[in-house]
Amino acid sequence: MSTSLTLDRARMEVRAAEASEYVTRFDVHQRLQHFLMMSSFITLALTGFPQKFAELSVSQSFVNALGGLENVRAIHRGAGFVMLSVCLYHLCYLFVRIIVQKRYSAFAMVPRPRDALDAFRMVRYFLGLSKDKPAFDRFSYVEKFDYWAIFWGIPMMGGSGLVLLFAVQVAHILPGEVVPLAHTIHSDEAMLAVSWIAIVHMFNAHLAPGIFPFNPAIFTGKLRRDRYQHEHPLEYDRLMAKPAVRRTDPAEQGGVVARTPEGGSGAT
Integer distance in angstroms from the first to the last C-alpha of the chain? Predict the structure, then answer.
């Protein structure tokens, strides 16, 4: 019996030690929104490109494997509505956080003059003109660009997709040229979005030196303390300067709860 209690106590101590090495970066709503956006985006890409490049044998094989073109279109449209729903979910989330709960941490994503300066400093670092990388706060200029690009991409993709879905109804209201224009916008914006995600976002989020092979923060909500200090030193220093007070809401002030060296919790 005493041996079992000793083992249980040891496990608890190990878990506590592991928890003290992590900083909570994203709350459950943010992680769920990302998962739904990622899943719908991948589904849209997989079902959209076989329609765009229908003459390719690989596209025809993929369409046949899913039971035909109508099935592919149904899946594509369903994923599109999921993506639009996620955007509505996110806007409602922001409304509740900012208007109802009076929490203004979301404004950390607003671009500032410092972001342009950080981009300039990063270029100097990449060219070997500076030995030090810029120190980032909660969000870097790249993360902000990724975020705000959605506010351009979704209206373009979603709006043009709805026009194509209800082409007959739209043609009764708007000039007929709107439908082929929507097709061009939908197709070209899809190429741009997939190229950006596959090359830029994947590299910065998962494949860059110091991050490879995977950044789990957006899936687990947590990031190792040493990586947080390295990737977001300005926010980390601000977190460590706060008193060790446990918050009931892990998303308080930006979705971050950091365990202080004394074992408490400090939130931004």
Answer: 43
The residue ranges of every structural domain in the chain are 14-267
The secondary structure of 10-23 as a DSSP string is: HHHHHHHHHHTTEE
**Position of tokens 């060219």?**
127
Distance from C-alpha of 58 to C-alpha of 54, rounded to nearest angstrom: 9
Q: Rounded to whole angstroms, how far apart are CA atoms 102 and 256?
A: 16
Q: Which of 214, 235, 236, 234 is nearest to 226 (CA)?
A: 236
Residue 166: DSSP 8-state: T
Per-residue confidence (pLDDT) for residue 158, from 0 to 100: 95
* Tokens read off for 133: 């990388």
Q: How confident is the model at residue 102 (pLDDT cuts 50, 70, 90)?
A: very high
Q: CATH assignment of 14-267?
A: 1.20.950.20
Least confident stretch, 5-9, 61-65, 148-152, 261-265 = 261-265
pLDDT value at 243 more than 80: no
In whole angstroms, what separates CA 160 from the centre of its chain?
23
Inter-axis angle of helices 57-65 and 28-52, nearest 10: 120
Q: At what angle do helices 69-95 and 28-52 cross, to 10 degrees?
A: 150
pTM value > 0.85: no
CB 21 within 8 A of CB 225: yes
Provide the mean pLDDT of the chain.
85
